[in-house]
Amino acid sequence: MLAVILAGLAPPPARGVQPSVEELKAKLSSANSNDKPKLCLQIAQRQLDAADKLYVASEIEKAQTALTDAVSYAELARDYAIQAHKHEKQTEIAVRGMVRKLNDLLHTLTHEERPPVEDAMVRLQHVRDDLLASMFPKGGK
Q: What does the domain layout of the chain look like in residue ranges?
């Protein structure tokens, strides 16, 4: 009886524990084609969050590495989404949010710190353009 009461007092198991970026990258290689865009977006968004925090902490080189990784995985998400013809809209929406976040970050940086962020924004805009072109081909209908 005492064990049941003590078990009731124990904290519940941790919910929502998110896998690390490295675990997501490892999972990507064995994921099916429908899940790959989502996984790539998760990695890209996590790396973008990390880059943002690193820029705030003035760890510029680490921030740029995380930023490059974020853009690379966003580009992979685009490629997988277009290839599978699935999750294109969700991918475009997520990438649009990433561009918005980078634009906000850009205004907090010094002139010397801006070029990599501006380059990332251009690359992400190309990702969006490719996704939109895939969803809405010219000469539609």
A: 20-135
